[in-house]
């Protein structure tokens, strides 16, 4: 297969995925925040909380609709641009996607209409339940998508069938409860919660700077700061869990992220900063934190974390083992039921390494004809781009800790300083609105780029997964997707800015009347207390 074709296919899918992921985190987090606000309204009966719920739900609805539009086109690409991948692992990958559509997406689509148009047709409690079901449906969508993606990172519960020449599922529950998938799910949804919290905090800060909708803004900041603080801590803790999983599921990705070229004595140090040099197999000007990586990656003081060079040597051996499996597979393919039992036994013994032999397809049509030099080149291909991964991960982590600091400060001001915020802090709240999206995109990049050269880690190389399309076809569709997604993004931004400027325009009279009565009660209470002072 033409290498440029694969790279263009990857570029197209990366572009559509990154565009789609601009909408996903806000949908995940804002659905929960809206449900929390409506719960407070049901508990207190105060109209201000209903007004807040309807306002933030409007922004959620805009983001939700456009997120669905960008997500649908992504799934078509599996059949269009990645047909061999769909054929090879469709039995496993297709199941979570189908369940996501049936169980989660239809749940969202059913209840989201009731959430927006059922305010005057249901009781307060019934409407609150509907809002929570929308939030749960949104998160269920993420669960099944990440189960599918987690299997690509750690392909458990499946095995290759030499008779059908495809991967087949052997245990559905192993796929569902895959440790990588579950860690990715909780980490991703927590990141979405942080994204929504920063968004709510930033918009509310803008209102306070403008002196508009101050009661709604202060209460929204209080909710966003508390929810965001818990979520920001969760992101860091659960991200650490993902790193621990990578120690025994994706060792090369972890070594690349750390710029760890040679295996260190346990416990390994953590490289805070440095300049990775792939040619020299060295990270220049590295600043290390002793023992930190060993403790994070292995939870012990004695277990080693293998470096890139050791893993390349192991890949070399797996490629040679995979060649044996490939040779046996070709015999099985030719002789079918007449295949000798010893050939099938040989295949079973080496089948786990078959994917490594497929890495040679980039250099030679028949892996059995590969030279030692070609095997060495294929083994070196298992090293992803160390420099981009190294810095993307560190920037993502730095942003994660900054969210903790910001949310902690706003939580303190909201809880112990009467919800009074300095203007510099409000300006900061507005400025940081884009940062959680940057962190989320970096996280996606680390997860997916770090898996290269595999589509399914250790099983199917990316170079073999793409469809046999022409370069012209890809360029035309790539241009079409860029135009389509850019138009949707402009529509999203235009609608969001329009409704943020418009502010909470629903239930204004009732809320204002309640606020006047509330302020009168507070004044009366103050007057009663003054003589006692």
Structural write-up:
Helix content is 73%, strand content 5%. It is built from 19 helices and six strands. A two-stranded antiparallel sheet has the order 1-2. A hairpin with a 4-residue loop joins strand 1 and strand 2 (166-169). Helix 7 packs antiparallel against helix 8 (214-249), helix 11 (308-335) packs antiparallel against helix 12 (341-350) and helix 15 (386-416) runs antiparallel to helix 17 (435-449). The model has no long low-confidence stretch (mean pLDDT 88).
Salient structural properties:
two-stranded antiparallel ribbon, metal-binding, cell membrane, heme binding, mainly alpha, 533 residues, cell inner membrane, 2 domains, heme
């Amino acid at each position: 297969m033409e290498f440029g074709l694969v790279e263009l296919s990857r570029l197209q899918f990366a572009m559509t995925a990154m565009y789609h992921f601009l909408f996903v985190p806000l949908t995940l987090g804002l659905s929960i925040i809206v449900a929390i606000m409506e719960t407070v309204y049901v508990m207190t009966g105060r109209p201000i909380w209903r007004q807040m719920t309807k306002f933030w739900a409007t922004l959620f609805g805009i983001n939700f609709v456009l997120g669905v539009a960008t997500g649908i086109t992504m799934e078509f690409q599996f059949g269009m641009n990645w047909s061999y991948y769909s054929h090879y692992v469709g039995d496993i990958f297709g199941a979570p996607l189908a369940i996501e559509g049936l169980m989660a997406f239809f749940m969202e689509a059913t209840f989201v209409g009731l959430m927006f148009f059922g305010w005057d047709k249901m009781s307060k409690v019934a409407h609150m339940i509907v809002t929570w079901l929308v939030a749960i449906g949104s998160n269920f969508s993420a669960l099944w998508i990440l189960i599918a993606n987690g299997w690509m990172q750690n392909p458990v519960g499946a095995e290759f069938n030499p008779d059908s020449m495809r991967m087949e599922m052997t245990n559905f529950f192993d796929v569902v409860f895959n440790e990588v998938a579950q860690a990715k799910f909780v980490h991703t949804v927590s990141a979405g919660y942080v994204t929504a919290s920063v968004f709510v905090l930033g918009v509310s800060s803008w209102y306070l700077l403008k002196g508009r909708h101050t009661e709604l803004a202060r209460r929204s900041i209080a909710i966003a700061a508390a929810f965001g603080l818990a979520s920001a801590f969760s992101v860091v803790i659960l991200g650490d869990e993902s790193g621990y999983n990578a120690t025994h599921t994706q060792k090369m990705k972890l070594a690349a992220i750390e710029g760890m070229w040679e295996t260190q004595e346990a416990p390994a140090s953590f490289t805070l900063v440095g300049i990775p040099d792939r040619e020299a197999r060295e990270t220049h000007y590295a600043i290390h934190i002793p023992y930190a990586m060993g403790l994070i990656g292995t939870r012990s003081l004695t277990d080693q974390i293998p470096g890139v060079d050791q893993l390349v040597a192991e890949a070399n051996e797996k490629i040679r083992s995979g060649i044996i499996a490939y040779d046996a597979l070709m015999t099985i393919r030719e002789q079918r039921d007449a295949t000798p039992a010893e050939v099938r036994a040989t295949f079973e013994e080496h089948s786990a390494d078959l994917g490594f032999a497929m890495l040679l397809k980039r250099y030679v049509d028949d892996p059995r004809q590969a030279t030692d030099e070609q095997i060495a080149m294929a083994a070196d291909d298992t090293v992803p781009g160390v420099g981009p991964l190294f810095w993307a991960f560190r920037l993502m982590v730095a942003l994660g800790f900054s969210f903790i600091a910001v949310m902690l400060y706003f939580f303190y001001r909201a809880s112990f300083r009467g919800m009074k915020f300095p203007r510099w802090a409000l300006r900061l709240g507005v400025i940081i609105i884009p940062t959680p999206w940057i962190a989320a995109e970096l996280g996606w990049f680390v997860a997916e780029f770090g898996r290269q050269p595999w589509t399914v880690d250790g099983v199917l190389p990316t170079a073999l997964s793409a469809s046999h399309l022409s370069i012209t076809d890809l360029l035309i569709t790539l241009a079409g997707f860029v135009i389509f997604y850019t138009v949707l993004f402009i529509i999203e931004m235009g609608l969001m800015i329009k409704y943020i400027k418009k502010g909470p325009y629903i239930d204004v009279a009732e809320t204002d009347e309640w606020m006047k009565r509330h302020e009168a009660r507070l004044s009366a209470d103050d007057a009663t207390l003054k003589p006692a002072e």
